[in-house]
Each structure stands twice: as C-alpha cells, then as structure tokens.
Amino acid sequence: MIRTKEIIRDAFWELLEEKPYNKITVQDIVNRCQVNRNTFYYHFQNIPALMEESVKEWMEDVIHRYGNLESPAYCLTYIAGECMKRKNAFLHLFRSAQKDVFLFSLNKMACGVVKAYVDEEEEYKGSSSEEKERVIRCYKCLFVGIILDWLEENASFDLPEFCEEICRTLAESAPHMMGRYPNE
After folding, report:
1. Which domain holds residue 159?
2. 3, 36, 45, 135: which could form a disulfide with 49 (CB 3.0–4.6 Å)?
3. pLDDT, tens digit, for every residue of 48-100?
4. Considering the entire predicted model, what is its pTM?
5. What is the helix (H) or strand (E) element at residue 11, kind and residue range?
6. Which phi and psi (to 5°) does residue 91 adopt?
7. Dihedrals φ, ψ of 138, to 5°?
8. Considering only CA atoms, which of 29, 108, 17, 18 is closest in space to residue 62?
C-alpha cells in the first residue's frame, strides 16, 4: 500500500518534469504508474492533494538526508543542489495555481535544514533561542529569496554555484558590515 503511494508520487514528479502542473491529469498519472483510477483516489483526493503530499515528502526526505553540514551556507548550497534535481518540476509548480503551497513548503524546508544545523552546531550551543531564531530566519530568508530569483529567471543559472558565491561574498563582507551603524 505504501509502495503504491510512492509509485504514484514518483509518476507525478516524472510528469511534472515533462509538462506544466495544470496539464497533468489523473489519467496521465494512472497510465504512467499502471494503476487504475480507483487506486489513485484511494490514496489521494485529487491532484492538488497529491502535489501537496509530494512536495511535503520531498522536503522531509531532503531534511532527513542532509547529513552533517559544515555551516549554514552549506545548508543553503545543499538545498540548492536538491532543487536543481527537480528544476523543471519546480518551474512548473512555480508557474501554477499551486505556487503558494510550493513556496510554503520551500520556506518550511529551508527553515528545517538550517534549524537542524543550528541545533547541533557547537557555535550556537550557548546562544539564546532568540539569537538562534535570528540566524535561522536570516538564512531561510536569504535562501528563499535566492530560489524565488532563480525561478523568476526561469532557473537559468547554476543555483548551487550562485549560493556558494553569495555565501562567500557575505562571509568576506560580514566583518566590514558588523558594527557599522549610522550616527556612530
């Protein structure tokens, strides 16, 4: 039973790589995975429910598989690499009526990966929960902003490479930015 759900989700991702979200039908999905319509409807109410669960499962898998990350910047680069693997699917979701669900999941995933890093990293062990939350939110906002830019540019640039460049630039300029406040 669980395997059938996975097969249906896999078929959905394959189709989403090939064509826009609004062009995918239940018939396309059942033909791809060779199950009947009743089987589809046993597991999913409709295609939007399938999409929501598929994105959620993908996100949880990314968070689960990320392993030990060296820095928040590496968290972002890692997520970027995972997004590149589903580039066309994400472009189709971004251009669809389900864009909000996709962006909500992306926010949640970015936050989850950075939070997992911050919770384990020695550097943040003595930090207050408010300080940790600021770091998590900062990197989450940075990443989601980069992803939105990437999607708005039709995924036309190498996302992991761009994330590495942005993080390198931030690391180099951070000492100069810190402590420089107006009226000092």
Report:
1. 51-177
2. 45
3. 999 988 988 887 787 777 655 666 667 777 778 888 999 999 999 999 988 88
4. 0.79
5. helix 2-18
6. -60, -40
7. -60, -50
8. 108
Q: Which amino acid is at 103?
A: L
When pLDDT is cut at 50, 70 and 90, the band that residue 6 belongs to is very high
How many C-beta atoms lie closer than 10 Å to residue 173's C-beta?
10
- Tokens at residue 20, please? 């826009």
Residue 13 counted as domain residue = no
Alpha helices in 19-98 (DSSP H): 26-33, 37-43, 47-65, 72-85, 87-94
CB 157 within 8 A of CB 131: no
Q: Could you tell me if residue 19 is inside a domain?
A: no
Report d(CA 172, CA 150) in Å as an integer: 23
Does the residue 154 lie in any domain?
A: yes
The backbone torsions φ and ψ at residue 46, rounded to the nearest 5 degrees and listed phi first, read: -165, -175
> Stretch 12-19: mean pLDDT, rounded?
96
Amino acid at the residue 60? E
Cα(121)–Cα(113) distance, integer angstroms: 12
125 assigned to some structural domain: yes
Percent of all residues in the chain with a pLDDT value above 90, rounded to a whole number: 38
User: Could you give the number of structural domains in the chain?
Assistant: 1
